[in-house]
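Researcher: Following up on the earlier apo prediction. This time include the ligand. It's guanosine-5'-diphosphate, with the SMILES given after the sequence.
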Amino acid sequence: MHRKVAFIGSVGSGKTTIIKNLSTANTLNTDVESSVDIGKELTTVGIDYGHVKVDKEMTLGLYGVPGQRKFSFIWDFVKEGLWAAVILVKNQDLISIDELGYLIDFFEIDQQLPCVIGVTHVDQGMGNSTIKKIKETLSHYKLNLPVYTIDARLEASAQLIMRTLIAIDESN
Ligand SMILES: Nc1nc2c(ncn2[C@@H]2O[C@H](COP(=O)(O)OP(=O)(O)O)[C@@H](O)[C@H]2O)c(=O)[nH]1
Ligand SMILES: [Mg+2]
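Model: Understood. Below is the ligand-bound prediction.
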């Protein structure tokens, strides 16, 4: 069985990093130079793709979806037939935190869809206020989703996210 997992979140939240980290095959990454200055030389304007074999029966297709809304046409493709979603929020980044509601709406996140929120860059500053704001947004949407503080560069973090999605799926 091949299943589709979306990694969504604003620029710099760690999508490309976590997909590379999880993927057992070479990842396809479409970072190209951005025409607008968003404070980072390279930004994702396409999608990341990675692939992971969980066991004999299950493989996962990992899709990293750009946070910049002008590329949201790509989101339609990723949304189709989605098995699970990972929302990455960059710690203390107001744009990233604000985007959460928009992403929940667009991807129609509900309790049926395995979904985990990962707060990244917590090694660079306290995560408390970011987590508080995320919890407020979730309660507004009456959603009860796991919120983890992670480091997208660490294998342990990537595995935690993946194992949680599988566990939620098995308990649904
Ligand atoms: N310190 C720190 N750096 C991170 C973390 N997650 C990602 N990064 C770095 O942040 C930068 C942006 O990550 P990237 O995966 O390109 O973000 P994307 O725009 O969502 O694809 C890269 O240099 C990553 O190595 C984290 O949790 N802590
Ligand atoms: Mg990227």
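Model: Residues 15-16, 31, 44, 48, 64 surround magnesium ion (ligand 2) (CB under 6 Å).
Researcher: Noted. I'll compare it with the apo version next.
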